[in-house]
Model the fold of this input.
Amino acid sequence: MKKVKVELGSRSYEVRVGADLLARTGLWLKEMGLSGKAAIITDTTVKGLYVDALIRGLESAGFDTAVLEVPAGEEQKSLETAGRLYSELSGAYAERTTPVLALGGGVIGDLAGFVAATYMRGVPLIQIPTTLLAQVDSSIGGKTAVDHGQVKNMIGVFYQPMMVIADVETLKTLPEVELTSGMAEVIKHAAISSSKFFEFLDDNLERVGAFHEGVLEKMVLESVRIKAGVVEKDEKEAGLRAILNYGHTVGHAIEAASDFRLKHGQAVAIGMMAEAKISNRMGILGDGDVIRLEKVIRKAGLPVEMPDLDKEKVIQSMKHDKKVAQEKIRFVLLKSVGNVFITNEVSPSLVEEVLFGRE
Ligand SMILES: NC(=O)c1ccc[n+]([C@@H]2O[C@H](COP(=O)([O-])OP(=O)(O)OC[C@H]3O[C@@H](n4cnc5c(N)ncnc54)[C@H](O)[C@@H]3O)[C@@H](O)[C@H]2O)c1
Done:
């Protein structure tokens, strides 16, 4: 098991990455001074797979556990479900010191994180991510939220967990499409800050599909280190944290324009490729790096080509995205693999040309 510390002063915490960690969680909670009750929030699928191992460890460390279950799916990231969870926590006599354990993917992490941040003005939160996306991205950094109306993550709060426990063994039961989708964020982390990690991915991606434990552990660990490093410098996204949006300006727009037919990771992969081409056309990113990126994205089983989407819909959603500052679309672009910069100075005609070709 390896540890990465997220240094945020009094809100610092550890991310523990390795195999067979679920059963050890109870002991670690006890070591952090927690005791009494523990409330696990999970979805139906993950509950069937992993809750027993977690409960065993918690009970042998003396915890009295309650399991709060929600159906799987983004629709559960709502105020309505949060409301139901508050009632269930209260019904289970959860107190201000009762830890909430978010066991599941990014949906559970965001929802349970939001509930933990707001129930009784905040109770201890432990993130136990079980998807690749959640292990390398959403469980780290303290962003919690629920969706509202048509707007994703509209209601939320920054709330750091007390610990993140990323058990790579849990990735073995992930549907392939979820694993592949999560790879987009791993590639993004390498592309924005480490040419060496990018090279590792290029050399080892074939082994991810075969669930090579060492490769998965290294991939999660390096990603966590990169994300933690960014979050430490800019916890509340005042500036630098925006670099984590590489591939997301175009990615979010095509995800929305496809009516969410494309998975987030697929849209981000296409977005990373498009944004690399924009930088290349601006004379900044070299041809060799564009080729390198394309090769790695393809190897991960992710798409690189723009799908057939309504042009106006894509452009409009890009303009409506929160990454627009003073009418200008903000892009995170690569200088080279491992180096990024943020700019508002990309001409709209270049964006259209790269995405849709010449009229
Ligand atoms: N807070 C952040 O910083 C942040 C960052 C990125 C994304 N997000 C959020 O994350 C969410 C997406 O997360 P996700 O992609 O993990 O989706 P998800 O939580 O919906 O999980 C995907 C599916 O996999 C299943 N699953 C989870 N773990 C499993 C396992 N080990 N084995 C088998 N099945 C398993 C789930 O039941 C679900 O059906 C979105 O709501 C997004 O907004 C948040």
Q: What stands out?
A: The radius of gyration is 20 Å. The mean pLDDT is 95. The first helix runs from residue 25 to 31. The chain has 13 helices and 13 strands.
